[in-house]
Amino acid sequence: MKTTRRKAAALGYDRNRDVAPRVVARGQGVLAEHIIAIARAHHVPIHADPALVAVLARLDIDEQIPPALYVAVAEVLGFLYRQGALE
Fold first, then answer.
1. In degrees, to the nearest 5, what angle opens at C-alpha 50 toward C-alphas 71 and 11?
2. Quick check: is 62 in a domain?
3. CA dist., res. 16 & res. 33, Å (int)
């Protein structure tokens, strides 16, 4: 039986520099768990979307998300905003 390793990706956005969010962290297994733990410790909202994280995990660190992902990321941000997780 194959065990699926957990994956995580973190996005950041600097309105003075960025056109789109960029990948600030990504990893799988122990590294993914560490990324998630740091996010929780700093009260960063977490959203589970295996298909989106699979695509984000293929991007380089500091790479902006491609236009093809704008809608998917906007939907996640909208969901988090409606839940009160974002200001």
1. 55
2. yes
3. 30
DSSP state of 15: T
Query: 53 and 6 in contact (C-beta within 8 Å)?
Result: no
DSSP 55-79: HHTTSPTTPBPPGGGHHHHHHHHHH
Q: What is the DSSP string of 6-42?
A: PEEEEEE--TTT-SS-EEEEEEETHHHHHHHHHHHHT
Residue 55 lies in a domain: yes
76, 47 in Cβ contact below 8 A?
Answer: yes
Q: What is the CATH number of the domain that holds 36?
A: 3.40.1690.10
| Domain span at 15 | 7-82
pLDDT tens series, the chain, 87 aa: 556 689 999 999 899 999 999 999 999 999 999 999 999 999 988 888 999 999 999 999 999 999 999 999 999 888 888 878 776
